[in-house]
Amino acid sequence: MLWLTVSQNLSFNALRNDLVNQLSVKANERLESREEDHVKSWLNEIMNRHKFALFLDDVWETSASCLLEELCVPQSPHHNSNIIIATSRSKSVLSQLGVPPPSVIQMEDLTEDESWRLFSSHAFPHSGGVLPMNIDQDIARLVCNKCGGLPKALKEIGKQMAGITRSNEWELVLLKLEIFTIIV
């Protein structure tokens, strides 16, 4: 099992090094040199010898067309026992990665209740996900709603709110989120 977060501002060298680090541990094989040609050769050899599941998280348009090649991921038909799972905000990215349309799963945003449960579990970890009495519920729910039902946003903003106990601080965060929403 291998996991790479690709992101918008990627470096193929950094991704390859991350992959090397994961494979070194899992395949119990060491890389002698971090020179680019040596890294690519080593990755190609190791990935051709082992079965793997590779998770490519947050792939963007700018990297999709050459990503698998840059990571030395075997793409020949005899490697069909390997699994590659990619997440992206764009269906065209998945197409560039060779994902056939029937294999694309469109994730739906969370409902308001699901969003609140996820957000609360991260924003209020010390109270078991229950809103503390000193925080205005309306403001907290508005902050949660600004995440748009997106799990990653709910989790990250929830984590940022953990430990913030004054209502005026919650109001400030809400204001910043409203400004950010207008800009985006």
What does this structure look like?
A 3-stranded parallel β-sheet has the order 1-2-3. It folds into 2 domains: 2-103, P-loop containing nucleotide triphosphate hydrolases (Rossmann fold); 112-183, no CATH class. The protein is built from 9 helices and 3 strands. The chain has helices at 12-27, 36-49, 61-64, 67-70, 91-96, 112-123, 137-145, 151-161, 167-183, and strands at 2-5, 53-59, 83-88. It has 184 residues and is mainly alpha-helical.
Name the CATH homologous superfamily of the largest domain. Answer: P-loop containing nucleotide triphosphate hydrolases
Gross morphology is elongated
CATH fold label of the largest domain: Rossmann fold
Termini Cα gap: 35 Å
Poorly predicted runs are: none
The CATH architecture category of the largest domain equals 3-Layer(aba) Sandwich
- The chain-level mean pLDDT equals 86
Number of helices: 9
Number of domains: 2
Characteristics:
single chain, 184 residues, Rossmann fold
Offer a quick outline of the entry.
With 184 residues, the protein is mainly alpha-helical. Helices cover 51% and strands 9% of the residues.
Task: Compile the SSE list and pairings.
Blueprint: E1 2-5, H1 12-27, H2 36-49, E2 53-59, H3 61-64, H4 67-70, E3 83-88, H5 91-96, H6 112-123, H7 137-145, H8 151-161, H9 167-183
Parallel strand pairs: 1-2, 2-3
